[in-house]
Design a protein that fits this description.
The protein is α+β, with helices and mostly antiparallel strands. It has three helices and six strands. It has a six-stranded antiparallel sheet with strand order 1-2-4-5-6-3.
């Protein structure tokens, strides 16, 4: 059974949202969604690397919170509710210096006033780069 309020995750519509915003600035693209998960990718390039030439931990956190926020948002009746981040943590596992990283988010809990999302970020070889958990507050629209 799908968790998405309108039946399917609106992948094409979401990717068509114009910029500039943080998602478009960092080159984040939503690539796939299932009944209870959503996946996107982000380039590892001059926009997302830190001074030592590897993926900036903050960029990984942006990717994770983007996934949790968008996931939460599309589970809601958006005429009545919205969502905002309450807390996020991240464990950085391995560096990435080029290519793409992929984030996949799944809800751990979809509650009336809060949602908790787990996000796994991997490199192009599927190796774990970062594990994150984000708590979202559900608020009146």
């Amino acid at each position: 059974m799908s968790i998405w309020h309108d039946g399917d995750f609106p992948l094409e519509a979401f990717n068509a949202i114009p910029g500039p915003n943080l998602v478009t600035t960092l080159g984040i693209e939503f690539v796939e969604a299932g009944e209870d998960w959503v996946r996107c990718r982000m380039p590892v390039d001059e926009r997302t690397r830190q001074y030592a030439g590897v993926l900036h931990g903050g960029a990984s956190v942006v990717l994770a919170e983007t996934l949790a926020s968008v996931g939460c948002y599309f589970t809601l009746d958006r005429t009545k509710q919205a969502c905002v981040g309450m807390e996020i943590n991240a464990n950085h596992i391995r560096p990435v210096s080029e290519g793409w990283v992929y984030g996949e988010a799944r809800p751990e809990n979809i509650g009336r006033t809060t949602q908790i999302w787990s996000i796994r970020i991997t490199n192009e070889a599927g190796k774990l780069v970062c594990v994150s958990r984000c708590t979202m507050a559900v608020i009146p629209a």
